[in-house]
């Protein structure tokens, strides 16, 4: 099946976003020939937790797991994104970010549907979700996905982010496709350790039942990253982001972000890991707004990092 077309204004023009049907099983996650399953035509085919008839009874964490697991099936993905919108809007977006966040249970292998790093334990993940407000509309956030240099569009600890487009970014940008697949080399530095890792991010554009639009992305790594001098490991990193048109202000965005990570650094406990994740999400939201506003970034987007 294919969805219809979505009209989205981008860069002063009109971007028509439509589905690009793909067939096959999901093999190598970066192989365009194995990009996703045959699209479902009925929610009964979705692999959901609990009843599809009563989504309000599904926990927010369960909905996020459903989204990760069903990401490659647009109809199922759209249903979960619509269900999560009401959860996001329950938060007071003027509150402190601690009050706009919840803890999440681990994302297990059956939910990931991507190639996990070997010898990792999902129980070691720390999971958090944060809901925030952006002063920029969904279309501007859509444009940021097409920037191959994601420094200043991520949390400040990410000092290098070289993005490559695995699927056709021109098709995505001109509205011929509603999905985009990317990979990237990433350098993550904080006061405790520094890591290089390869990250994969898939994007989709969704037409909501309300007539509004949303963007959704899924993030993961497939190998354990070892810090320089062996002082730590980035063992697991999974993520979901949803950018909703703000129903109260079409020129603004409600941003829901979820992360499940395992970062092994001496003296970094589970509570500190949760705080590190939450701070990173809050920083990313504010950094993105600042960058789109033209505020000077604290990181050098053009620094020539050499991956060792």
Please state the CA-atom Rg, rounded to the nearest Å: 18 Å
Strand content: 25-35%
Counting DSSP H or I runs of 4 or more residues, the number of helices is: 6
Subunit arrangement of the protein: single chain
The CATH topology is Alpha-D-Glucose-1,6-Bisphosphate, Chain A, domain 4
- What's the SSE pattern? EEHHEHEHEHEEEEEEH
Helix content: 10-25%
The number of domains is 1
Record the SSE blueprint.
Elements: E1 5-10, E2 13-18, H1 60-69, H2 74-89, E3 101-104, H3 109-112, E4 126-134, H4 138-144, E5 158-165, H5 169-173, E6 179-189, E7 194-207, E8 213-221, E9 225-226, E10 233-246, E11 249-264, H6 270-293
Antiparallel strand pairs: 1-2, 3-4, 4-11, 5-6, 6-7, 7-8, 8-10, 9-10, 10-11
Helix pairs in contact: 1-2
Question: What does this entry look like structurally?
Answer:
By secondary structure, the chain is an alpha+beta fold. It has one domain: Alpha-D-Glucose-1,6-Bisphosphate, Chain A, domain 4 (2-Layer Sandwich), CATH 3.30.530. Helices cover 21% and strands 32% of the residues. It contains 6 helices and 11 strands. The chain has helices spanning 60-69, 74-89, 109-112, 138-144, 169-173, 270-293, and strands at residues 5-10, 13-18, 101-104, 126-134, 158-165, 179-189, 194-207, 213-221, 225-226, 233-246, 249-264. The strands form 2 sheets. Strands 3, 4, 5, 6, 7, 8, 9, 10 and 11 form a 9-stranded antiparallel beta sheet that branches. Strands 1-2 form a two-stranded antiparallel sheet. Helix 1 packs antiparallel against helix 2. The N and C termini lie far apart (45 Å). Residues 1-41 have low confidence and may be disordered.
């Amino acid at each position: 099946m294919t969805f219809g077309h979505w009209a989205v204004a981008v860069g002063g023009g009109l971007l028509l976003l439509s589905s690009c049907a793909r067939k096959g099983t999901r093999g190598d996650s970066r192989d365009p020939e194995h990009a996703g399953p045959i699209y479902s035509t009925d929610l009964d085919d979705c692999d959901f937790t609990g009843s599809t008839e009563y989504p309000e009874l599904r926990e927010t964490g369960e909905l996020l797991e459903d989204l990760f697991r069903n990401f490659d099936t647009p109809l199922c993905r759209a249903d979960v994104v619509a269900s999560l919108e009401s959860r996001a809007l329950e938060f007071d977006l003027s509150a402190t970010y601690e009050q706009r966040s919840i803890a999440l249970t681990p994302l297990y292998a059956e939910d990931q549907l991507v190639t996990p790093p070997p010898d990792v334990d999902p129980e070691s993940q720390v999971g958090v979700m944060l809901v925030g407000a952006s002063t920029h509309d969904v279309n501007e956030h859509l444009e940021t996905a097409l920037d191959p240099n994601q420094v200043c569009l991520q949390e400040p600890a990410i000092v290098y982010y070289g993005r490559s487009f695995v699927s056709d970014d021109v098709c995505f940008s001109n509205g011929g496709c509603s999905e985009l697949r990317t990979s990237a080399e990433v350098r993550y530095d904080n006061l405790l350790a520094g890591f290089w890792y390869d990250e994969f991010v898939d994007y989709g554009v969704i037409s909501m039942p309300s007539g509004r639009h949303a963007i959704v992305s899924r993030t993961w790594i497939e190998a354990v990253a070892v810090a320089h001098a062996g002082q730590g490991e980035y063992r697991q990193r999974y993520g979901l982001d949803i950018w909703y048109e703000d129903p109260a202000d079409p020129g603004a965005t409600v941003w829901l972000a979820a992360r499940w990570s395992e970062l092994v650094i001496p003296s970094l406990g589970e509570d500190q890991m949760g705080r590190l994740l939450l701070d990173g999400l809050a920083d990313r939201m504010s950094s993105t707004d600042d960058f789109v506003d033209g505020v000077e970034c604290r990181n050098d987007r053009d620094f020539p990092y050499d991956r060792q």
